[in-house]
Amino acid sequence: MYAVIRIRGTVNISPNISKTLEHLNLRRINNMSLWKDEPQMLRMIKTVEDYVAFGEINDETLKEVISKKGKPIDNTQKFDLKKAVEEIKKGKTLNQAGVTNCFRMSPPRGGFERNGVKKSFKMGGAAGNRKEKINELIMRMMQ
Q1: pTM of this prediction?
Q2: Local confidence band at 93 (pLDDT 50, 70, 90 cut-offs)
């Protein structure tokens, strides 16, 4: 499962990228969404990789995110954390588990990497594929 975090704004974005960000539920800076490891999702993420940070989320971080930042789809009901995490691990989507797929995160403590959000992660920046290091960024954004 991939975690995708929007790190750049909307100024001078092409309509194709803007539409893709909307499809990924990333309408604001510091919003995060979770997506399955499917070819069409990877193509969408590759399209917007200069505007997002993404990587594979582990189970511990997934539990933390859902418990601290997760909101139920229906505001009149509460969701069970253990049940929701088990359903997600089995292959259901977040919406089927009763959790919204847009998490509003805080800016990371200590800021982004040294070269900022305009450079890729390989070059010392924040954008692009972070692989397992996305979990560290998510934990810094939840404090």
Answers
A1: 0.91
A2: confident
